[in-house]
Structure formats: structure tokens, C-alpha cells
């Protein structure tokens, strides 16, 4: 059956077949007259059938997108262009002619948003550190926790983990740094209880060796065992625990007459931390006599 005689299944009684809606007539006419099909309405993206010759060109010219339509399409593809359009319509360039008051308001709003996000991120990091430390303490020196275990214990997602740490090694390095800062704060608090330089040195030695006794020893041993698989330093490059502890000895060593307080403090810190490591891996508890001997050694370093 020809295109003109094709029956439209959707045609109502008493009306001719619609060229735009009848599938049979549209397909037949398209095969016979392919040039009559044009992109008549590019804004809608549909092909319209035009029955009469010459009407395709007129319709295409009539619905040709204007400059405003093209700009609106560009804004949909790139939302930032909308800001540029509004500013150019007002007669100024983007970023030009902004008053200091507007700039201050924008800065204050941005600071409030950043402060809230900073607090949220700090809470996430603390939850990850605490969860990882608890899992390391539970596993001891027999098993290392996975990232999935740490995330599940912290109640966060993998996205939150990798937002703050590029790998598990970075998390372990952060735990080491956090533990070093806590130990430094504890030893400094113990040293503040003594008025004399000799008493401060003894408090320092006792505070460092106290990490090899009780539950603290098990936690420290587990963290150091997990840190054995770390392939690189922490991203921020924090100082080691030996360097942090050595800083605390500079002031009492200088008061005792040390010619080079920084060098002497570093030497005493390396010797004491090495003794602590021996007690940790040997699973032994330092005796009070060990504290006396190391204290006497540190005081002899100053006098020589």
C-alpha cells in the first residue's frame, strides 16, 4: 500500500491520517522523500515531517536558535557562565567593582563554613585513630587490622578514611605521631612536679621507662609491631619520639652546666629509648634500680 493510502491505526473516524503521528505514513513517506526530513526544531531535538516542498527550509529558518538560546545552552553546560552573564548584563566584569563590605561578608561566611567542616573532619580523624588503636591493642602482635575493620569500628565509610589518609601506612604513622605527642605531654607534666634539674631528669627517665609496664606496654608493643610494615615516613614528616623527648632535657641540662645541651639531650634520649625498646620486646618491666642507673648516666653526660 502506498504512503497516501496507508491506514493510520490511531486515526479517528472522519479525519485524515496525521503525517506527524501515523507510523505507517511517516515511514513510507520518509523512504520516498528523504529530503523532506529536516532538523526543524533543534531546541527540542526532534525530526518533524513537513508535507509541502520548500516548507522545511522556511521552518528551519523560523526556529533557528537565537543568541540568547545559545547562551542559555552554554549556561546549562557550564553554570559558571551564568554568573558572568549576570555581571556583564549589569555592566561589570566578574570580580571587578566588589566593595570591601561584600568581600568581608563573603570571607566571614566562608570562614564559618570552613570552621564547621574542619571540626567535622577533626572528629572523623580522631574516631579513625581511636578505632585503629583499639584494634591494634586487641590484635597485639599476631594480626594487623585491615582498613575495612578500622572503618567499621569507627562507624565511617571508606570515602571518609581515604579523605584523610592515602593508605593504612599513613594511618599507622599518624598513630605513632599521636602516641609520641601524648608521651611527651605526660613526661613534661611529670617533670613540672620537680623544682631541681636533677629531679627533672629523674622524672624524665621514670616517665619514659613507664611505657614498658602494664597495659601501656602491650599497646606500645602492638603499635610498634604494626609500624614495622610502614614503607615510608608520615606525610607531614613529624619528628621522632626520641627528638620530642630530647627537647625536654635541654633546659635541665643547660641548668646543670652542659656545654652543648642539645647534643647531650639527644644522646641521653637515644640511650633511654633504646633501653625502653629492649624492655618492650623482652616483655620485662624496668626496676627502680634501672631508673637510678639511667639517671646517673644522664647526669654524667652533663658533667663530662
From TrEMBL:
Domain HTH tetR-type: 122-183
Name the record gives this protein: TetR family transcriptional regulator
SUPFAM superfamilies to which the protein is assigned, alphabetical: Homeodomain-like
DNA-binding span(s): 146-165
PANTHER family (UniProt xref): HTH-TYPE TRANSCRIPTIONAL REGULATOR BETI, HTH-TYPE TRANSCRIPTIONAL REGULATOR RUTR
Name of a matching Pfam family: TetR_N
Keywords: DNA-binding, Transcription, Transcription regulation
PROSITE patterns on file: HTH_TETR_2
Amino acid at each position: 500500500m502506498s504512503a497516501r493510502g496507508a491506514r493510520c491505526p490511531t486515526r479517528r473516524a472522519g479525519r485524515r491520517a496525521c503525517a506527524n503521528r501515523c507510523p505507517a505514513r511517516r515511514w513510507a513517506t520518509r523512504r520516498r522523500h528523504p529530503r523532506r526530513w529536516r532538523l526543524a526544531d533543534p531546541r527540542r531535538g526532534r525530526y518533524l515531517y513537513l508535507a509541502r516542498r520548500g516548507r522545511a527550509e522556511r521552518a528551519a529558518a523560523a526556529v533557528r536558535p537565537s543568541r540568547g538560546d545559545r547562551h542559555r545552552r552554554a549556561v546549562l553546560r557550564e553554570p559558571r557562565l551564568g554568573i558572568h552573564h549576570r555581571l556583564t548584563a549589569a555592566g561589570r566584569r566578574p570580580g571587578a567593582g566588589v566593595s570591601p563590605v561584600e568581600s568581608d561578608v563573603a570571607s566571614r561566611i566562608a570562614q564559618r563554613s570552613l570552621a564547621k567542616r574542619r571540626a567535622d573532619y577533626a572528629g572523623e580523624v580522631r574516631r579513625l585513630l581511636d578505632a585503629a588503636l583499639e584494634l591494634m591493642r586487641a590484635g597485639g602482635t599476631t594480626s594487623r587490622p585491615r582498613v575495612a575493620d578500622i572503618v567499621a569500628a569507627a562507624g565511617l565509610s571508606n570515602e571518609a578514611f581515604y579523605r584523610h589518609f592515602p593508605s593504612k601506612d599513613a594511618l599507622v604513622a599518624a598513630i605513632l605521631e599521636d602516641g609520641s605527642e601524648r608521651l611527651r605531654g605526660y613526661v613534661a607534666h611529670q617533670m613540672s612536679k620537680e623544682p631541681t634539674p636533677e629531679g627533672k631528669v629523674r622524672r624524665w627517665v621514670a616517665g619514659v621507662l613507664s611505657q614498658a609496664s602494664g597495659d601501656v606496654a602491650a599497646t606500645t608493643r602492638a603499635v610498634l609491631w604494626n609500624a614495622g610494615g610502614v614503607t615510608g615516613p608520615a606525610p607531614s614528616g613529624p619528628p621522632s619520639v626520641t627528638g620530642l623527648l630530647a627537647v625536654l632535657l635541654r633546659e635541665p641540662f643547660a641548668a646543670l652546666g652542659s656545654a652543648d645541651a642539645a647534643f647531650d639531650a639527644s644522646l641521653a634520649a637515644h640511650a633511654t629509648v633504646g633501653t625502653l625498646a629492649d624492655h618492650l620486646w623482652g616483655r620485662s618491666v624496668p626496676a627502680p634500680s634501672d631508673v637510678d642507673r639511667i639517671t646517673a648516666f644522664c647526669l654524667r653526660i652533663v658533667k663530662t
